[in-house]
Write a structure and sequence with these properties.
Layout lengths: L1 H18 L5 H17 L6 H24 L6 H26 L2 H11 L2 H16 L9 H9 L3 H27 L21 H12 L8 E6 L6 H14 L3 E6 L10 H13 L3 H13 L8 H12 L9 E6 L7 H10 L7 E7 L3 H7 L5 E3 L8 H14 L12 H11 L3 H11 L5 H11 L4 H4 L2 H14 L6 H16 L6 H9 L6 H10 L21 H9 L11 H19 L35 H15 L10 H22 L5 H11 L1 H8 L3 H18 L3 H22 L4 H17 L3 H19 L7 H17 L3 H21 L1 H21 L3 H21 L1 H21 L4 H21 L1 H21 L3 H21 L1 H21 L3 H21 L3 H20 L3 H21 L3 H20 L3 H18 L2 H9 L19 H4 L9
Helix pairs in contact: 1-2, 1-3, 1-7, 1-8, 2-3, 2-4, 3-6, 3-7, 3-8, 4-6, 8-12, 11-12, 11-13, 12-13, 13-42, 16-17, 17-19, 18-21, 22-24, 22-26, 26-27, 26-28, 27-28, 28-31, 29-30, 29-32, 31-32, 32-33, 33-34, 33-35, 34-35, 35-36, 36-37, 37-38, 37-39, 38-39, 39-40, 39-41, 40-41, 41-42, ...
Length: about 1150
């Protein structure tokens, strides 16, 4: 009776939800499927009881699930949405099976029943139960009677109301995803503009060629970039706007982006990627939803580097993009805003995109751009020039006639010959035409003014063929017309234009006036008047917008005023003198405007590096409006202006420099670190020392003690909190330089601080894989501390132990394991002694040292000694993590990784070593969400080891899934820091190849191993190392196996022969037993392949060499086999594992994994 009542409640819930479930379509399809099962049960007469039972079961459990979702207190319903989608798929499959059965004749169904004894319905119920369990639904663990009871509790109408409201609320939650898109960098004014397109009927041949190139993308195999590289003023940007307009009309345009040298801070590669990601959101709903979810799940991607955004947002959504239409991206003026990271993505990343991507890039043909983009198969050049040819001359004439239709030219009659001369003198430069037309606007007789300019520019026609000279001649004409006898004008011109051309980023007139107010006051109205007179050289200047940044019309204005006119001209600008003025102004601004209440100030009070287990606290952000435009600029650029102010001592702002840094050095360091790039005081010190040696002591004698402390203190933040490794190295090297001078001046008083700086510098060098320098620096740091301590360690013990552990790690990079072990055991002894008195402070360091000792013993094969060390270290870490998991979880994971490697080397079953790895991977996945830059290398290393364990079990799918997750991580890391991670990416690709071979996907395996070999060859071009050579030999061997599987025996043989050649080269360079063994095994494989190809004579020629090598290696089993020819009949299966090395850095919880 109770069950009948529950069935009625269930049916009511299903029908009610089904009729109102438009809010979330899977709700409707799930209830549809459940109702379908109920309705079709009555139509089956065979095993009627089983069908009725299935119908009741499905209705009750689906209704109970919906009730549970409605009553769940968690407002976030993503998990439930995924569960319902999964259940929906399962119910659809069940529905299809039932429909297929219904389509059969009654006799067939009867025959099926007797053959299977009703198993078909039981299988359907089992499939449904499995689907319910996947929903993480606690009712799936209840008995049917308990579910019935649960269903009868409460008000069904209230349940339905709660359920539907939950999914309505989730729509609001999805809106939050959309809101995250709005937080991407937004470059206002960097998109295309219909008012700036080509005049109708102009640039037709160019537009036809571009349109044809875009249309052909559907038949191409790879994406392409079309590069339009023409000189300044040739109309590239106008053409780019027209391309955008046409692509938008055809719904091909994904995004457009217009760089500008005069707006560098507003239109960067980060802004480009923000625009690109927004564009992808508009392609279709699937990509938009996926991107929104990615950004919602990992908010750090909003401010991530373009490389991370390319790898973690753009590449993952590519499968969702349409393949049948062009996807057009237009990037204008690449030379005016690109950086190396963007150029590398265009060169190396674009080929990873779908073939229907069409990326159009315009740029001046500068070497900084062309050297990256020329001569690559996916980058094509526009065949037609923008400045040469009759079509360009005709387009310029149309452009001029169109300009003459509007005020103030519409009532002026320009003789046809004047227009022809104007066209002829332009030599294809639209910029030259536009500047002239802007210039003659105020003249009463525009035609006469134009004739004067044309006649004056006719003197040296050969030179005027050069685009820049033509524009410079025009600037000369404009400036020469001003009243240079007016001393007020000259002074205001020098102040205004001198600051505009030397500014490192554009400043507003308001900021300029305030900059000058502290040292050389200039009236704001006067500055506006000067700007107004020079507006033909400025970009869209308006006298009424004093808060807008002032930008030059073109970068050539600066070049002309400072390099291409005699210094006797009143409008000549001496860049050194202008920089000197700006240096004094910025220093005065810092002195007058820094206030103690700005949040980042005072941050450097803590000595964060003393405890490696605690990441320095986050540097407080600078609230909007808390510092002025001119102060922000001054803190970031006062050093640049000072260094560029010349070598005349009486002019250089050295006295102001000393005064300001004495009072505000700490504040400047804190503010600039918070802004994203710590001021380079080391560069400043070096410049003063080299340029003004007699003045250096006067400035830095009392500054160096302060600078050494502040610079050293900020390094831990840069290195540990935000992963700015290169910046950290520059800063700590500046701190070390100040310490050296302090030691020279004051002796041992500053020796410990010098050793600390060197210890930190060694870590930074190690992060960047500058290993020889790191080792030398760390050895010197240890030597200094030991000399200070003598026979009485006392206060030096903590510093010595830390330095010894860091030195031990670096020695491990060079496999100097005995020395490494000795140092880390000494550190462990010190920490054990310190922890007896201060366990809370030093117990973590005992754990750190124990894991280091275990790892060194593991490297040396002393497993019996390593096991208790790793167990004790892991026990300490687990105890610490129980109290503070945020800090110590990463160290638990490091120890688990080492423990797994140890279990494997002890010969334990791979399953035993997989258990701690899974625990470590799970922790790293969580840590990566919070700080991907810090923990992604460790996650990738763990995944690599996990993949190897599955390979050992021949669980190819699981091995593939682990490696497939590691490879994208290494791709991201290699794009960002190629010198650190390209080798590790190559290792991971080798592992991926092995997994794909195991899955029978030999074609895919060949792609992976080819990429690995290309990367290794590229690395060998820059540095020849035996480890790289060994890796190349292994990869060639693996490629040989793949080609052999594909029956491409000729290529397979060539790969194996090259692998042997590489092994031979390694052995000749370093004839150790290991290298003898590797070469011998390679020769065995080659011998076997020769034999299989019927080349017995070739096989016999190399067999003798292999026998000798096995004897040298002490491998008597192989020696015997090779001597008797037994190996000649063996298949070529020997594998030289290269993808199995653990990471020493993981032991220490460092950011950079270092498997090489």
């Amino acid at each position: 009776m109770a069950k009948t009542a529950s069935l009625s409640i269930a049916l009511g819930i299903l029908q009610a939800v089904n009729s109102a479930a438009d809010v979330f379509p899977p709700l409707k399809t799930v209830t549809n499927a459940a109702l379908f099962v109920a309705q079709t049960a009555d139509s089956f007469h065979t095993n009627k009881e089983d069908w009725t039972r299935l119908s009741s079961h499905v209705q009750i459990y689906v209704a109970a699930l919906l009730k549970h979702i409605g009553e769940d207190s968690d407002p976030m319903v993503d998990d439930w949405k995924e569960s319902l989608l999964s259940l929906d798929r399962s119910l659809q499959e069940i529905q299809e099976k039932i429909s297929e059965l219904r389509s059969e004749t009654f006799l067939n169904r009867l025959w099926r029943y007797f053959k299977t004894r009703g198993q078909f319905v039981k299988d359907l119920q089992r499939d449904f139960d499995d689907a319910i369990k996947l929903c993480n639904f606690r009712a799936s663990l209840m008995t049917t009677s308990e579910v019935v009871k649960h269903l009868q509790q409460g008000d069904p109408n209230k349940t339905i109301e709660l359920l539907l409201q939950k999914f309505k609320d989730d729509i609001a939650f999805d809106n939050d995803c959309i809101e995250s898109l709005r937080q991407l960098p937004d470059a206002r004014g960097a998109s295309w503009d219909s008012s700036r397109t080509c005049l109708l009927g102009t640039r037709m041949p160019h537009l036809r060629e571009i349109e044809m190139w875009i249309a052909n993308c559907i038949t191409r195999d790879t994406p392409e970039i079309l590069l339009i590289a023409d000189p300044m003023g040739s109309g590239k940007s106008t053409l780019a706007h027209s391309i955008c307009q046409e692509a938008q009309r055809k719904r091909w345009l994904v995004t457009s982006f217009f760089f500008s040298r005069l707006r560098r801070e507003e239109v960067t590669s980060r802004h480009l990627f923000g625009s690109l990601i927004r564009g992808f959101c508009q392609v279709n709903k699937g990509t938009g939803d996926t991107i929104a979810r990615i950004l919602r799940d990992d908010a750090t991607l909003l401010d991530a580097s373009p490389t991370r955004q390319f790898q973690e947002i753009i590449l993952p959504i590519c499968p969702l993009l349409p393949k049948s239409v062009p996807l057009v991206v237009v990037v204008d003026a690449l030379d005016e805003g690109c950086d190396t990271e963007l150029l590398q993505i265009l060169r190396d990343g674009v080929p990873l995109l779908p073939a229907n991507f069409c990326i159009i890039v315009t740029s001046r043909p500068e070497d900084s751009v062309m050297s990256w983009l020329e001569h690559h198969s996916h980058i094509q050049l526009l065949s037609l020039s923008l400045i040469r040819g009759n079509h360009t001359q005709q387009d310029i004439e149309k452009h001029i006639h169109n300009k003459f239709r509007y005020p103030p030219f519409e009532n002026t009659v320009f003789p046809p010959q004047l227009i022809q001369d104007f066209v002829h003198r332009s030599k294809g430069l639209f910029l030259w035409v536009d500047v002239i037309l802007e210039y003659i606007k105020p003249f009463l007789h525009c035609d006469q003014a134009l004739r004067e300019i044309i006649d004056s520019s006719a003197g040296t026609p050969a030179e005027l063929l050069d685009a820049e000279l033509k524009v410079f001649a025009l600037y000369e004409q404009i400036l020469s017309k001003l009243m240079w006898k007016d001393k007020v004008l000259v002074r205001a011109y020098k102040a205004f234009m001198g600051s505009v051309v030397t500014a490192k980023e554009p400043l507003s007139i308001n900021a300029l006036v305030l900059l000058f107010s502290y040292d050389q006051p200039v009236d704001g109205d006067t500055m506006v008047k000067v700007a107004n007179r020079l507006r033909s050289l400025l970009n869209n200047f308006s006298p009424g917008t004093r808060e807008e940044p002032i930008r030059l019309l073109h970068a050539s204005v600066r070049e002309y005023l400072s390099q291409h006119i005699p210094s006797t001209k009143p409008y000549y600008l001496d860049i050194e003198e202008c920089n000197c003025v700006m240096a004094k102004l910025t220093l005065s601004t810092i002195d007058n405007e820094i206030k103690a209440h700005v949040p980042p100030l005072g941050y450097l009070s803590g000595e964060w590096d003393i405890d490696i287990f605690h990441v320095p606290p986050k540097l407080p952000p600078i609230p909007p409006g808390s510092i002025s435009e001119q102060l922000s600029y001054s803190c970031r650029f006062f050093i640049d202006h000072t260094i560029q102010s010349g070598r005349v001592e009486e002019l250089a702002p050295l006295w102001r420099l000393h005064e300001v840094l004495s009072r505000h050095a700490q504040a400047v360091i804190e503010l600039t670190a918070a802004m994203g790039s710590t001021t380079n005081l080391g560069h400043l010190r070096s410049w003063v020392k080299d340029t003004f040696p007699s003045t250096f002591s006067k400035i830095f004698d009392d500054l160096d003690p302060l600078l050494s402390k502040y610079l050293y203190d900020i390094v831990s933040y840069l290195r540990g909190r935000v992963g700015r490794q290169k910046e950290a190295l520059l800063v700590v090297q500046a701190a070390r330089a100040t310490c050296h001078r302090l030691v020279d001046k004051y002796g041992s008083r500053y020796m410990l601080h010098l050793a600390r700086c060197m210890n930190m510098e060694g870590l930074c060098l190690g992060d960047l894989e500058r290993d020889e320098e790191a080792l030398a620096t760390l050895e010197e740091a240890v030597k200094i501390i030991e000399e200070l301590a003598g026979n009485y360690l006392g206060i030096y013990e903590p510093d010595l132990a830390r330095a010894l552990n860091n030195l031990s790690r670096q020695l491990g990079v060079f496999s100097r394991n005995e020395e490494s072990l000795r140092h880390t055991e000494k550190a462990l002894e010190i920490y054990r002694r310190l922890s007896q008195d201060q366990p809370n402070l030093y117990e973590p360091f005992v754990g750190w040292s124990l894991v280091s000792v275990a790892y060194r013993l593991l490297e040396m094969g002393r497993l019996d000694e390593a096991t208790p060390a790793i167990q004790e270290g892991l026990r300490i870490y687990r105890s610490l993590a129980d109290r503070d998991h945020e800090t110590f979880d990463q160290y638990v994971s490091s120890a688990l990784h080492i423990s797994s490697i140890m279990l494997d080397q002890m010969g334990r079953h791979p399953v035993e070593s997989i258990v701690p790895l899974l625990d470590a991977v799970g922790t790293y996945l969580r840590l990566v969400k919070a700080n991907p830059e810090l923990f992604e290398p460790n996650l990738a290393a763990c995944l690599g080891t996990l993949s190897i364990r599955f390979i050992q079990l021949e669980n190819w799918q699981e091995a593939f899934e682990a490696t497939e997750k590691a490879v994208p991580i290494y791709r991201r890391l290699a794009l960002r820091e190629p010198e650190l991670y390209e080798g590790k990416l190559s290792d991971a690709l080798d592992g991926l190849c092995t997994c794909l071979v195991g899955l029978g996907r030999d074609d895919d395996a060949l792609v992976a191993i080819d990429e690995s070999i290309d990367l290794t060859r590229k690395l060998l071009e820059h540095k020849s190392m035996l480890t790289l050579e060994s890796h190349l030999a292994y990869s060639l061997h693996e490629r040989h196996l793949v080609l052999k599987n594909l029956n491409r025996y000729g290529e397979s043989l060539r790969c194996l022969e090259e692998s042997v050649d590489v092994h031979r080269r390694i052995f000749e360079a370093n004839p150790t037993q290991m290298h003898a063994s590797n070469l011998g095994k390679a020769l065995d494989n080659l011998c076997a392949l020769y034999h299989s190809l019927g080349r017995d004579e070739d096989a016999s020629l190399i067999r003798g060499e292999a026998v000798e090598l096995h004897q040298m290696a002490g491998d008597w089993t192989r020696h015997a086999q090779a001597s008797t020819g037994a190996l000649a009949s063996q298949p070529s299966i020997e594998v030289f594992w290269g993808y199995m090395g653990p990471n020493p850095a993981i032991v220490l919880g460092e950011k950079c994994s270092r498997s090489r």
